[in-house]
Specification:
- This protein is of the alpha/beta class.
- Helix content is 44%, strand content 21%.
- The chain has a single domain, classed as Rossmann fold.
- It has 5 helices and 7 strands.
- It has a 7-stranded mixed sheet with strand order 3-2-1-4-5-7-6, covered by helices on one side.
- Helix 5 links the parallel strand 4 and strand 5.
- Helix 2 packs across helix 3.
Length: 182
């Protein structure tokens, strides 16, 4: 009888694990399909990227496809900006939310959404690390929704529709970051 109860508990735990695993990867697949797979950036790269942005205290900083929100949390803590973190993966958002509480980041909020559906009209700075196909799709959204002067920071991939709005490029060991003004 003891073996059968242990076996039942094991099967239930295995089933829960498999369900969570499938749910996680189905959301991760959604992120990949939306051209925003989770790829972390090192702290040293984040420091350099944000230092070149000249962020102002109290300004509004968006991160579209925030993943674990390391970029936006760093911006909130070091530059005292108001952060809006947007991602389609609920497990990464939950993880990011918990990290924001651990690191005492009071000026950040999290939005579970496809970034194509979020209004950008209040953004002063927008950080993206998206694939070129997503950048192509979102470029018109930047133009139609962002205020004049909004800074768009695109890590690793240029926004070809914005080539005449490019104000700066930095190269960190072959990884370029592009800065555009709307």
């Amino acid at each position: 009888m003891i073996v059968s109860i242990a076996y039942i508990v094991f099967v239930i735990l295995l089933a829960v694990f498999l369900i969570l695993y499938v749910v996680y990867y189905s959301f991760d697949l959604r992120a990949f399909i939306s051209q925003a797979p989770f790829v972390p950036i090192s702290k040293s790269r984040i420091d350099k990227i944000l230092s070149k942005a000249r962020l102002k205290s109290g300004s509004t900083f968006y991160e579209l496809g925030c993943g674990d929100a390391r970029v936006i949390m760093h911006a909130c803590l070091k530059y005292h900006v108001k952060g809006i973190a947007i991602d389609i993966n609920p497990l990464l958002l939950l993880y990011s939310y918990v990290r924001s509480k651990i690191y005492h980041v009071p000026t950040i909020s999290f939005t579970y959404s496809n970034f194509y559906d979020v209004s950008l009209k209040n953004a002063h700075t927008i950080f993206v690390y998206l694939l070129p196909s997503a950048l192509h799709k979102i470029a018109t959204k930047f133009t139609s929704e962002c205020k004049k002067g909004t800074l768009i920071i695109s890590h690793r991939f240029a926004i070809h529709e914005y080539k005449n709005r490019l104000v700066q490029t930095i190269d960190q060991n072959g990884e370029e970051t592009f800065y555009y003004k709307v």
